[in-house]
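Protocol step 6 of 9: fold each sequence in the batch and record its structure tokens directly after the sequence line. For illustration, a two-sequence batch is reproduced in full.

Sequence one:
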Amino acid sequence: MVNDETNPNIRRLLDTLPDEPGIYVFRDGERRVLYVGKAKSLRKRVMSYFRNAGPGEGNARIARMLKRIHDFDFVVTSTETEALLLESNFIKHHRPAYNIVLRDDKSYPYIAVTLNEEFPRVMLTRRPHRSGVSYFGPFTRAGMVRDTLDLLGKVFPYRKCRGVKPGRHSGTPCLNYHIGRCLAPCDGRVSAEEYRRMINRVVALLSGRSEGLSRELGQQMEDAAQRQEYEQAAILRNRLKALEHLLERQKAVAIGADSLDVVGLYRQGDSANVQVLQVRDGSLSDRQSFFLKNVAGESETVILQQFILQYYNEAVGYPADLVMPPGFEKNQLLSEYLSERKGSHVEVKTALRGKRRELSDMAAENARLAFRQDQLREEDRKGRPSRALAELRKELDLGFVPSRIECYDISNIGGDQAVGSMAVFEGGLPKPAHYRRFFIQESGEADDFAMLSQVLARRFSRRRLDAGSDDPSFSSIPDLIVVDGGAGQVSAVTGALEAIGERKLPVIGIAKRFEEVYMPSRPEPLRLPADSRALGLLKQIRDEAHRFAVSYHRRRRDRVFASSILDGIPGIGPARKKAILEHFGSPERFMSASRDELEAVPGLPAKVGREVYAYVHRFSQTI
């Protein structure tokens, strides 16, 4: 029986549901996807959401979702396995608000291999979402990734330069080539095919397939020695040692299986932790930890099933066996799904005894411990700003905890293109939506005090004008004003505020050299301990204001530079100007470019490059 409070539109649509496998998509009134699920019987599964019986204990998330559902779609499939695959694709594309999701893992480091480039790079990244790039990880520590990359770079002489195209502006090989750490694709000393074969071996090693690699390097070393190529033999010897060290770091527990992933789960409330123990070449080589949210009201089977869909959706390699926790009920379904994606059979089962059961228990215990650690870290992270604010109130003798703090800074070069910035923290945390920039009008000379006075006067005149407006950045009143500087800057700001009738706002300055705090009421600066939470908060907002001001100043300076320097050169139109700026990246780099470098700019004729060099050289002699 359908609940009487169910939306009439939903009641009509329920009658159209077939008793077949497929996926269902719940949407809100604006057609946004709320939830994607799969079912062996669409009719039975979707109807179960709207029966008279209200949601049970732990189903508050589902109850909130049901109140927002205005419409739903469904897609019928031939089998439940097809539905599982389709559900995975829909979740990946729409990222619904009420599906179980992996917590954003941008903070976790990965090893990335840019397979979409002619000469791929191997590097550390924290953004594992670019197409055409293979990712390995996540790792728990960036130091572990850097150590691994250092060892990989000794074994495989792939390029270490950062650009999409290999090489430097000069076109000559860098030091890495001369010390045997790079094959110099920038200089044509290795073909794309040979370089790609090396990268394939890197990918194989990172995927856990190291069989035969040590033996191959050892044979190459012996062959080089027999040919009396002792220098090459020494290079191969060093690579072999680096490889052996790398493999030793990866090995932990031998269990007699070639390729195996072991999954463990711990859940509490609306969150959960999943651990994946990776066994490669018979050894436990890595442990990965993931935090899930939106799990309240879901069974452990559903949680693990949706996790597996997301975890293996972007996987480079699949294990031969997948060990799930006891009680998991979808072994056959997941086996069919993973086998279809891998192209060969993947066995999914629970471990009942032996070494695999020990690893399964280890994964479950690690999940419990990781969950508790994350709880403690989260509690500490949430409490850190309030503790810093309380300490700041005490150190500054404010008499109240400052909720809104505004910090101001000036950026200019000799008064040219001078700008000011306002960074805002509320509750001890940055509030970027309230940050504001100011272009200093008619600065004329590098007078930071006058510039600060102008910025403060304009900011608080806007407060009066915008009182009750939709711009809370100007209409809000700060509890504390911080200025990047010392006693002179504090005096300038205090005088500017008094001039416009804002005498009651507390003002302090924090100077970079000794990180001293300047206050109008103290003749001597206040020195806080280096580990002080209050000092850490002041430095953070000071650095934010500085960063915001400098970035604005650079943009204005570069824009003026581009229009004033390049616009005066004959033969340089918008397209060539853009090509020059994109090639060199910064005005400083352009100004220091040699004639050969200017002649080599893509899209710029050599003759025009020489003319540009002559013009810039002539210009530089007159300033």
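Sequence two, same batch, same settings:
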Amino acid sequence: MKRFLSMLLAALMLFTLVVPASAAELKAFSDVSNSIWYAPSVYALVQKGIISGKSATTFDPQGNLTRAELMKMLASAVKSSGELSAYAEVQSFSDVPVGSWFAPYVNWAAANEITNGYSDGTFAPNRAVTRAEAASLVVRFAQKTGVSELKAVNEKTTFTDDAKIAGWAKENIYICQQAGIFGGYPDGDFRGGNNILRSEAAAVLCRLLGVEPLPADQLPTPPKPATTAGTFQKSVAGYSVTGIELKGYRAGVILANNRFYQTESASSMVSRSGAAVVCNGPFFNNHGDLTTYISAVVDGKALRIDNATYPKKAYLVFDENGNASMQFLKICQTAKLLQDGEEVSRYEEVGCNFAFGPSDGSRMIFTDAFGDKIPGTVKCAAVCDKNGVVTSVFDSDTAKSVSIPKGGFVLCQRQRRDVGQEYKWDTFFTKCQVGDTIQLEITYEGSTVQNIRTAISGGPTVVKNGQPYGNVSTYNEEGVTETALYSSSAPRTGIGVKADGTVVIAIATCTFQGLSQVMAGLGCKTAMVLDGGASTALYVNGSTVYGAGRLLSHMLTFSK
């Protein structure tokens, strides 16, 4: 009976202290799309005053959760701000000074034995919380406050990386797994050493507290940036600069004759695109096979993914709400094999429209942007229509010149396995049958934004944190190794993003380092190089601002 009354009191405390705000008062975060999986959890906790954003307009869902932020979430779940103020003047740890914003929350947690800090008397408030630490802290929180009994609702499932889980955290991790509040990854790993993301923490806390995620019709609509555009011609850092600033535009890529490995006049592509602003894209091999050195996702679908040589690159990114940023990321594409709606196998690290050799074991998607057929022999392939439905399957060494369907795609691999080795994706094609569905999923490793609609690579990076950036070493690391490209003075195109999301396209005759000065001088927070020399081009509303001196393989487009 006493146990029941204590649980009832805890539940009443949670109900009375966490008072929902009206939906009308709930303000949207520009970096949390309503269609993303964690949005209902984030906004449910925001509505109850348990969690807040990194700023008035951003949540930073892919950012690491700090120890101080987690203590604030836990304390705010069961205590009012008035009650927590009693802990403001206490100093439980040497690095939690009186007057700091996190002092009340950390001191409350210490007083309630939810955290003991470190043996040297510190708490490390700004250190990122690992997934193992998060599991242990939420279990201790539940036990000390009584807000959840953490009843087992799932059978215990041993994580595939169980041997790597720290002994001090293992019991609590499996308590969370069985209670259904904290699980692992689709591959079976828990990855306790990984930092927990702010979005993940929101979902965990919702489940822990029994807070219902907000229904779709109660989610606030993120505001879209106002559409503005203006060309300029000015002197910056001693260079004559021509360019344009854009806000509220969506980006795209137009290919010469709608295919890779071809060229077309810039004016023709501008006319076909119908876009308000068109400029030259990243580098391409004008003197050889016309390879386009670009990785891109456009309108949520992969156009080309090249992770073979330089996996992480600088990208111009637009999220689903139209907000622009620059990210240093790796596009990760996964192909899931579905039978009767259930996933039965998956292919990870799948490229797109990237030519690879006969002995290469890469997994690749080819669309009609690559051509009509896959040249040479493939070991195994699945041909899919525009809906991802499998129309034919090849699983032999005799699949030559496999045709690429218009609007569909082919998933293939030239070498399925090495001699004496077997990989977890080997079963994909042995299970694949006509009529199955292959679902493509894209995530972005290293990006602070995940609800990405468009991502276009370029580089190398020439501005970081608002300051000129780059030298021979960093240029080489990002794939530019030809000395003449970065050291000679020639027309250069830079593209960058200001802190408020304004996209800046600028053209100046200079070296890469000169372009660093130009883009920083124009107020860019981050910036990268596009192609230059005779490829330099900028068209606004169909009129030539800077005309290309050669045929191009592709261009970047910007539309309202």
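Proceed to step 7 once all outputs are recorded. Observation for sequence two: The first helix runs from residue 2 to 17.
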